[in-house]
Write a structure and sequence with these properties.
Elements: H1 10-18, E1 20-28, E2 43-50, E3 58-65, E4 82-83, H2 97-107, E5 111-112, E6 124-128, E7 138-139, E8 145-147, E9 150-151, E10 158-162, H3 165-176, H4 178-187, H5 195-199, E11 202-203, H6 211-227, E12 229-234, E13 240-245, H7 248-266, H8 270-277, H9 281-284, H10 287-290
Parallel strand pairs: 1-3
Antiparallel strand pairs: 1-2, 3-4, 5-11, 6-7, 6-10, 8-9, 8-13, 12-13
Helix pairs in contact: 3-6, 6-7
Length: about 300
């Protein structure tokens, strides 16, 4: 799937766009079901029509497709391809003209997350897990983490620092939103929430001073901490680790409030907002019972 999601593959993807008249790309996850049983690989199928013309190829893509095993026989029949907007350079997994319209509106924003961050460490920060599945796990502060009786910073995660605490709160709300989850599914490999993807996510400067957005972002932070599950594990090196796992399912109603506030800033229509709030919702809301997204994979 890296051909549709990784900057490291830009030479290959760029060559395909220059040497083709049209490209069709479909992309497949591995949860809750996978394309090939026993092969733990997120995959893309890319079909091109070669051309000697110098113009860049039209790129039609599906969404990042998830499915249950009982849906497998109809998997390809249910696909929808959408033409990716010309102003988007990256290969994005859109899947519908509605998704393409949302992406176009996000591109119109006048700023991005990186522009409001601090270049040095401050007490105002967001901590998020790079390993991502059905939910982006982010908090403006540190989740509980105890290794061998010592409470400390979690072993795996990334930090983004801000000059103002309110900015950290609002951006944490943005990162946990379904709009951000949609963006992650479109441009990532379906697993790694890269630092470049987070910091380049488009925002409106007015969001940082939106009182209603500031308030609901605070409510989300408290709710994430309240609903976190305390879990324990033993690593192969003999370490005993206890940590809090954030539960996106329980906080989804508050995330929906954040998405409604963000939709006003992005100029999303009622139909586009409904699309975002319900994006992959049948898989996301059942995800906690299907699989546990543990950040300690490399240590277990």
């Amino acid at each position: 799937i890296s051909i549709t999601s990784s900057a490291r593959m830009s030479e290959l993807s760029g060559l395909l766009r220059k040497s083709s008249s049209i490209i069709w790309a479909s992309s497949y996850g591995i949860r809750p079901s996978k394309l090939f049983d026993g092969a733990e690989q997120r995959l893309s199928i890319v079909i091109v029509s070669l051309s000697t013309a110098s113009k860049r190829a039209d790129l039609y893509t599906t969404k990042y497709k998830r499915w249950y095993s009982e849906e497998r026989t109809n998997l390809f029949n249910l696909f929808e391809y959408a033409l990716l907007p010309k102003e988007i350079d990256l290969w994005g997994k859109a899947g519908s003209q509605l998704a393409a319209s949302v992406l176009s509106k996000l591109q119109l924003s006048d700023s991005n997350i990186d522009k409001v961050t601090s270049t040095r460490a401050t007490e105002n920060f967001i901590f998020y897990q790079e390993a991502t599945g059905y939910w982006i796990k982010s908090l403006d502060g540190l989740p509980y983490y105890n290794k061998n009786g010592n409470v400390s910073s979690p072993a795996h995660g990334r930090y983004i620092y801000f000059r103002k605490g309110s900015d950290a709160g609002v951006i944490n709300g943005v990162i946990n939103s379904s709009i951000m989850f949609f963006y992650f599914c479109v441009f990532s490999d379906g697993y790694h929430l890269g630092d470049w993807l987070v910091k380049n996510f488009k925002i409106q400067d007015a969001m940082l001073n939106d009182k209603s957005l500031i308030d609901v972002a605070k409510k989300l932070s408290k709710d994430l901490v309240k609903n976190a599950s305390r879990k324990s594990l033993s690593t192969k090196d003999g370490d005993q680790i206890t940590y809090d796992e954030l539960d996106g399912v329980s906080s989804k109603p508050i995330m929906d409030e954040i998405d409604r506030a963000l939709a006003r800033h992005y100029g999303l229509s009622a139909e586009e907002l409904d699309f975002i709030i319900n994006y992959d919702v049948k898989y996301r809301m059942g995800s906690e019972s299907q699989t546990s997204e543990v950040s300690e994979t490399s240590e277990v």
